[in-house]
Amino acid sequence: MSVNTVRRLVADDTSPDIHYTGPWTQDVGTQDNTGNFGPPFRNTQHKTIADASFSYAFSGTLVSIMGTTQIDNSTGVVDPQWSCFVDNVQVDTGDPFPFPENNWPLCTARTLSDGLHVITVNVTVKAQPFWFDQIQYIPSSVVPLDNATILVDIPDPIIRFSPGWTTLAGLTVNTTNEAGSTVEIDFIGDSLTWYGLLPQEIAGLPQSTATYSIDGQAPVTFPVKNFPNGSATQFLQKLFDTPTLSPGRHNLLVTHQGNHLTTPLYLDQIVIQNATSSSSSSAPITSGSSVTSPTSAISGVSSSSPAHISNKAVPVGAIVGGVLGGLALIICLVIGVLLLRKRFQKGGRRTPDSSDLPPNGTRSVTPFTHPMQQSHTTVTPWTPSLAGSQVDNQIPASSGNSTSKTNLQRSEASSGQRVFQKSHQQFTASSMSQTGVSETAASSTSAPTSSRPLAYGVAELAQDLPPVYSPR
Fold first, then answer.
1. How far is it, in rounded angstroms, from Cα 433 to Cα 435?
2. What is the pTM of this model?
3. Closest C-alpha among 124, 150, 131 to residue 29
4. Of 35, 213, 351, 363, which residue is the least packed, with the fewest Cβ within 10 Å?
5. Contact call for residues 52 and 20 (beta carbons, < 8 A)
6. Cβ(274)–Cβ(297) under 8 Å?
7. Are 83 and 48 in contact (CB under 8 A)?
8. Contacts of residue 366, Cβ cutoff 8 Å, sequence gap at least 6
9. Separation of alpha carbons 361 and 371, rounded Å
10. Does residue 408 have a pLDDT over 60?
11. Which residue has the higher pLDDT, 167 or 332?
12. Beta pairing partners, 119
C-alpha cells in the first residue's frame, strides 16, 4: 500500500548553526509545564528580554519556527512582537495565540522553492520575554542527514503495527488497548524517542505498562501515563527514550501489556537521532512523495541524493614523486637522443689519424675495376703520396675548383658510331692548394694521364666508365 510520507528535520535551539544577535540566554526546564502541548524539545529554549534576532540557513521546501507563545496584550499592544523573513521576504505570523503554549508554531513558510534559503526572525520586546525552542523543516533530497535529528509522523513505512491498533479520527495518532499488541520500527541511528497522547476521555483510568526491546535484547518496561479527571488532553507526551546505541541499523519492538480497563498506549510521533556507520544501508527521506516499501529503514543518506563520499587523504608525496620521476625520465631520453645524434654526425666525417695509415706513412688505395675492363685496358688511378700529419679531411665537392676536371668530347667515327673520349688533366700545385693539400705534397706527386677511345654505344656508357676515385 502506498503511503504519503513527510519527514522533517529538527534544529534545536542549542544548534551551533543558528546565529543569534542580541541578549539571548538559554533556559532549561522552566517552561516544561506550560500549556498542554508537552514540554519544550529536549527541555531547552532560548529567551530574550530585549530586541534581538536570529537566523538559520537550510535547504528545503517548508520551514517552521517553534517556541512558547506567552504574550501580554493588556495595553492593547502585543508584547513581545516578532516578524519572520525567508530570503528577505516576510512570512505571515498569523494572529497571536492568547494562551500560553509550548511547541507552538510562531511562523511557517510553505511551498518554498526546493533549494537553499535563510530564515531570519526579528524580535521586539518591551517587558514580556520571547521564547524560541526549535526549527522544523522539510529538507531537500540532497541534504546530508549525518547526525541529523529526524521527526517521523504517522503513517510512515518504517512503523509497522500489528492487529489491534486503530487511528484516532482526525488525528495522525494510533492507539491500542489490547494486551500483546505490538509495533515494530526499523531505523538507522543511535537513539529514538517515543511521543504519545493522553486524551481527556481516558482521564482517571489506572496506569498501564508496556515494554520495548532493541535488536532482540531483553525487554525494558516503561509506564503508560495516566492523569486525573477533568484534565485537558495532553499532546506530545514523552513516554520513553532509548539509551544511546551504537551507530547503525536497529530494530525496536514495543509491546502493550495493558487491557481495556487500563490506560491505552498511544503513538503520536517518534524522533530519531540519526547516526550512520559505513556498513549501514539507506532508505529514502522524502518530501511528500509516495513510499511503497513497508520495511525500509530511516537512514542518514537520502536514496535520491548523490552518494556521500568520505574524504580521504590524497597521497601528495606519491603524486609529486611520480611526476618528478616521469620528468627525469623524459629529460634523460632527450639527452640520450641528442648525444646519439651528435655522435652520428661526427662519425660521418671522421678525421684520419696515424693509426689509419700503413707503416710507411702512405695510404694505399685499391682502385675499382669494372668487369668489362678486364678485356680491354686498365686505368691506373692517381695515388697521392700522403704524409701522416698533413692530411686534411676537408675535400671540396666537384664544383668551381674541382680536383678532377673531366672533359667529355664527342666525335663521329668513320663507322658511324659515336665515340666518347675521356681525359684527365694533371693536377697543378695551385689546384692542390685550393683543396687543402699542402704544396709539398702536390709538388712530389704527378697525376698520370690516360686517354683511350671507347667504341661503345650511348646505352652502355654507364657500365663502361668506372667511377674515378677521389681520396677523402
1. 5
2. 0.61
3. 131
4. 351
5. yes
6. no
7. no
8. none
9. 31
10. no
11. 167
12. 56, 86
